[in-house]
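We recall that each integer encodes one residue's backbone shape. We quote one record:
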Amino acid sequence: MKSKYRNIFLLFGIVAIVVMLCTFEMDYADLWQNLRRAGCWFPAIVGLWVFIYLLNALSWYCIIRDGKQTCPISFWRVYKLTISGFALNYATPLGLMGGEPYRIMELTPYVGASRATSSVILYVMMHIFTHINFWFFSIFLYIALYAVTWEMGVLLAIIGAFCLLAIYFFMKGYKNGMAVRTLRLLCHVPFIKRWAVGFVERQHETLTRIDHQIAELHQKRKRTFYTAFLLEFLSRIVGCLEVWFILNILTTDVSFADCILIMAFSSLFSNLFFFSPMQLGAREGGLALAVGGLSIPLAFGVYTGLLTRVRELIWIVIGVALMKVGNKLSNE
């Protein structure tokens, strides 16, 4: 990627960090007291994401490598791009508006524009697909652990129906590709339809090739598909340790299975407010509702949301800083 484009992404990340710091809804003295209360657990919470991002990067690397013995880009560069890409996504309203273009532009010199685009699209699809499967899995975990009232039964049925519908559409996308179909949908959206129509006409051959690569992953390279899926799903489970670490600061009466349920239902709630940068307010509300639903004090959910927000801000700073590190193109 040219330095001027990388600097644009870097500037965007810095501005987003400044805005987040200025709009943090807590007195910094109170924030410091809460961090001191966490003690040694807080470094463990931040450090946990070294391993979570490692699993994310391994999943994407499997897709890029495509079952071949060699790969034109090293794993550690993919790891760096993974952290920076997620940092831009977390800081962006609507999500997936900064990190994915950045990853494509950084990956293009190594594998070409078509393969870079298809690998990023495939990874994003896998990331969202495993998130939906994580929600679906959590329905059965809740049923196994708790008595289901009729109200909760209705809620779980609605969530289950939504997950099954989403899984169906994703499997259709994996079978037929999604690039052309997505751009054609944008052709009917006001304000951007003129751009979308022109883009589809100019890049139809490239988009068709990308769709072919997407369909080929699921149809012909099932080992790569399921390896990437399992790595992403494992990252969801490992991510639940964050909630377990935080709640163990406050109580010893919460099981790891409860933390899986808290993560699942809070992420489902916060994703309903995908338009908010860092899902400000939505995540805290989702965590409060999730722990309340499991008969855990609501204050625990608020405290969990606070520490999660600080951890996320730290990793956004790390991700943005990494954008200027190790950018010399070499034969890897």
User: Anything to note?
Assistant: Residues 275-282 have pLDDT under 50 and may be disordered. The chain has 13 helices and no strands. The chain has one domain: 3-239+318-322. The radius of gyration is 21 Å.
